[in-house]
Amino acid sequence: MNSLFLQKRGTICGRGPYGNWGSRKYLISSLDQSLRRMKLDYVDIFYHHRPDPNMPLEETMGALDQIVRQGKALYVGVSNYKAEETQQAAKILKEQGTPFLIHQPRYNMMDRWVEDGLLDVFTKTGIGSIAFSPLEQGILTSKYLGGIPEDSRAAKKGTYLDSSKITPELISKIKALNEIAVKRGQSLAQMAIAWLLKDERITSVLIGVSKVSQLKDNLEALNNIKFTKTELNMIDKIILEK
Ligand SMILES: NC(=O)c1ccc[n+]([C@@H]2O[C@H](COP(=O)([O-])OP(=O)(O)OC[C@H]3O[C@@H](n4cnc5c(N)ncnc54)[C@H](OP(=O)(O)O)[C@@H]3O)[C@@H](O)[C@H]2O)c1
């Protein structure tokens, strides 16, 4: 029997009101379809992608509980849930006895929303976290310092990174961050990943790459995940000041 990590990310599975979001029907049928496609009996972690504003949380958490009890997932996780929603989800799942293992939030040096309560929920509940978009779509790397490379995400149509976001003001911040990274003996991508991993509430980082060389570069981040107070203050000053 095999297992692997499956990330359900809002896959539309069928027409009608139950083809997406957080209903029991959607979650169970979408996992069943995925398991069939992957020829697997179960997944290690089944994530719910984002809270459903039109569905009681009990319904969604009930579906996650049912999935674990059916043996189709070992653990459950959520993504994009705010602090309060995570706390409520944890309470419901605890009552049901379902192992709520991990939260997948968007988090990087430039996108700090998790610092407004969610990280505290991780401390209180012991839920782990895996940060997605650690490089802010590639902005937190040195790739845009000399212009927009043809093979980059910003140069491609239909991506979440529009080239108009790469402004001279942004580039001057990235240059300043890159200088700190160089002094630390890291690439900027490595420093951005290390910056997340310095916090023990961040269990892991979900890296996305378009080349094997980027994967190799990013993995080297693990060689230095310690920061001095001065470095952290300098990073905050560069990013948070207008
Ligand atoms: N849970 C959710 O709602 C959610 C939402 C979005 C994503 N995710 C997950 O998170 C993963 C990562 O997200 P993301 O792709 O947005 O991550 P990201 O870290 O913000 O951006 C990754 C991009 O940065 C560039 N890059 C990576 N390493 C580099 C390096 N060493 N040097 C230069 N450029 C580098 C590559 O873009 P180029 O194409 O420019 O080379 C790569 O595709 C996704 O694969 C997905 O599984 C989850």
Rg (CA only) = 20 Å
Element order: H for helix, E for strand: HEHEHEHEHHEHH
CATH topology of the domain at 1-104: TIM Barrel
Question: How large is the share of residues in beta strands?
Answer: 5-15%
Judged by helices, strands and strand pairing, the structural class is: alpha/beta
- Whole-number average pLDDT? 93
Task: Name every ligand kind in the structure.
Answer: NADP nicotinamide-adenine-dinucleotide phosphate
What is the percent of helical residues?
25-40%
The CATH class of the domain at 1-104 is identified as Alpha Beta
Largest sheet: 5 strands, parallel
Task: Assign the CATH architecture of the domain at 1-104.
Answer: Alpha-Beta Barrel
Terminal CA distance: 53 Å
Shape: globular
**The named CATH superfamily of the domain at 1-104:** NADP-dependent oxidoreductase domain
* Number of continuous helical runs: 8
Please state how the strands of the largest beta sheet are arranged side by side.
Answer: 1-2-3-4-5
Number of DSSP-assigned strands: 5
SSE topology:
Elements: H1 24-38, E1 43-48, H2 57-69, E2 73-79, H3 83-96, E3 100-104, H4 118-125, E4 128-131, H5 168-183, H6 188-197, E5 204-205, H7 212-219, H8 229-240
